[in-house]
Amino acid sequence: MDPSRPSQPSQPSSREPNEVFSEIFPATSIPSQPYWPSLHKLYNDAWLSDDPDWPMPQPFYRLHPDIEKAAPQFLRPLGPRGFVALTLVEESDGSRTPIAALSGMPFEGDWESHRPTKSEAEQSAKESFDAPREDPGPKPPIWEFNQVATSPKYRGRGLSSKLIKMAEEEVLRRCEDGNGGRVRMFVRTIEEVSGPFWRARGYVEVPEMFAKLPEGFTHYDKEEGFPGLRREVMIWAGEKWLR
């Protein structure tokens, strides 16, 4: 079995307008898909908020607003083995619009030696956005989820939870030939934004991998001129064993 090939769910020959469905795609294929502009917009719209205490600047560009720059930015963290789980809506004209997304990739580096210090926290966060992922080294394999987004219009329907389950099954499928199929999953997120969400889905905190990001932090170069965090935030880290 080719571990880099995502599973392909069986599909009907045609879909009804407004039908909602989910599939997994190789990450490298995403920028060439006709729905890439819609996915690009989804990733940025997912961070919009009118809450005055929301820590993210408004607007916050998870992906660069220039779609040509956004494509390599999107792909860099995922590496050659990364995949993207998408929930899409079939439009009346036959096009497809992403409404929820989640990415999976091998965890970067060596888990046991990955202990960022306070002085490394900001650089580590920047690298989590932009650095290429390395294949996991020692067994059991370690995979990471990132780039989670749901359209504001479709929140509250459990779409992200369904994508997480689908993506966990995909990771298990890719790793089934090693270590009895056991996999260690890892996530990093802003605690107040989605820490409770991941804990509710079985991810247990890893305090030694927490980090703080200072007010004004941005994952872009300063020359880009994008605003940074409105205040200091805590980066929460969690793990979950599959099987």
From TrEMBL:
InterPro entries: Acyl_CoA_acyltransferase, GNAT_dom. Residues 111-137 have a biased composition (Basic and acidic residues). Pfam families: Acetyltransf_1 (PF00583). Signal peptide: none annotated. Transmembrane segments: none annotated. This is N-acetyltransferase domain-containing protein. Residues 134-202 form the N-acetyltransferase domain. GO terms for molecular function: acyltransferase activity, transferring groups other than amino-acyl groups. Residues 105-145 are annotated as: Disordered.
